[in-house]
Amino acid sequence: MKGSIRNYLFLLIFMGMASMASAQLKIGYILSERIRTEYEEFKEAESQLQLEYRKVQLEFDQMVIKMDSLKQDYEVKRLMALDKGESIRMELEQTERAIQNFQAEKIGPQGELMRKQAQMEYEILGKVKKAVDKVAIDGGLDYIIDASVGLLYFKPKFDLTDDVLHELRNLNSDK
């Protein structure tokens, strides 16, 4: 009982201090989804990844076509009982393993495409962080929140997305 009263008093004091402090805080927000769709580097990275994915898909499709052809040859030889298709069966197994390895190396969770996407996003998000920091410092803000993640209500006058996009464009022109 004594502990719950102490916790209750602590909570009341904390809430009172927080409400006094919040009167002095400057908070803004951004819409990261809008930055993702409007910032040119995000668009370029997405199209680059799509191009890479299409290349990988084409290579994968060619491997599957080869495997299907080998399966047909194997079935024909097996049915005709010529040589029981042993050499084709071995090549078929090798092709299946190659396809599985290809998928793991290129498309899987630790694959080349995922690593490339993560690297591109890391670089772009670093620039976004720089732009957000600059907007916050220049505007004397204490917090900038990403409203795309879950704010239910916000006043449009506190939207700093345009300012961040402007800073991102300035970062690109400084290169």
Describe this structure in words.
By secondary structure, this protein is mostly helical. The protein has one domain. The chain contains six helices and two strands. It has a two-stranded parallel ribbon. α3 packs antiparallel against α5. The N and C termini lie far apart (63 Å).
Strand content: under 5%
Q: Tell me the number of helical segments per DSSP (H or I, 4 or more residues long).
A: 6
Question: Whole-number average pLDDT?
Answer: 82
Share of helix among residues?
over 70%
Q: Report the biggest beta sheet as strand number plus sense, adding barrel if it closes.
A: 2 strands, parallel
Structural class: mainly alpha
**How are helices and strands ordered from N to C?**
HEHHHHEH
User: What number of structural domains do the residues give?
Assistant: 1
**Radius of gyration in whole Å, from Cα?**
29 Å
End-to-end C-alpha gap: 63 Å
Strands of the biggest beta sheet: in what spatial order? 1-2
The shape, in one word, is: elongated
What's the total number of strands? 2
Q: Provide the low-confidence segments as ranges.
A: none
